[in-house]
Automatic annotation (TrEMBL):
It comes from the Eukaryota. This is Uncharacterized protein. It comes from Panicum miliaceum.
Length: 115
């Protein structure tokens, strides 16, 4: 499932009148079962409120999750990347392998925080 276009649109502009965001946000409290989901790749992550809420819920819903890869949008500052990595790790469980990626000269590379 590629939600990057949706979240990019959400973070770049105000929602138009009648947008689905204005409707009841059942997905934030809905209890989904994604117990067969093993791997997730999130691309162009910016750390918007919508992305963070969805990510937190994803860790709750995907009880069989083994690996998650997060590639940050190249507009995200280093300091923000560091904080977002810490925050996403707090949502995770110890058995989940988490890899973070940033773009350097338009090439995706594994992110290694100095901490």
């Amino acid at each position: 499932m590629d939600l990057s276009d949706y979240f990019i649109r959400k973070t770049q502009a105000e929602c138009p009148q009648g947008c689905i965001c204005g409707q009841p946000s059942n997905w934030k409290t809905e209890e989904l079962k994604l117990n067969c989901l093993r791997e997730v790749e999130i691309r162009q992550f910016r750390g918007s409120d919508h992305e963070l809420v969805f990510s937190k819920r994803l860790f709750t819903w995907a009880t069989g999750l083994k690996r998650i890869a997060v590639a940050f949008n190249d507009s995200v500052a280093e300091s923000t990347t560091k904080e977002l990595c810490k925050m996403l790790r707090t949502f995770s469980r110890p058995e989940i392998c988490m890899d973070f990626y940033v773009y350097q000269n338009k090439v995706k590379v594994l992110y290694a925080s100095e901490d």
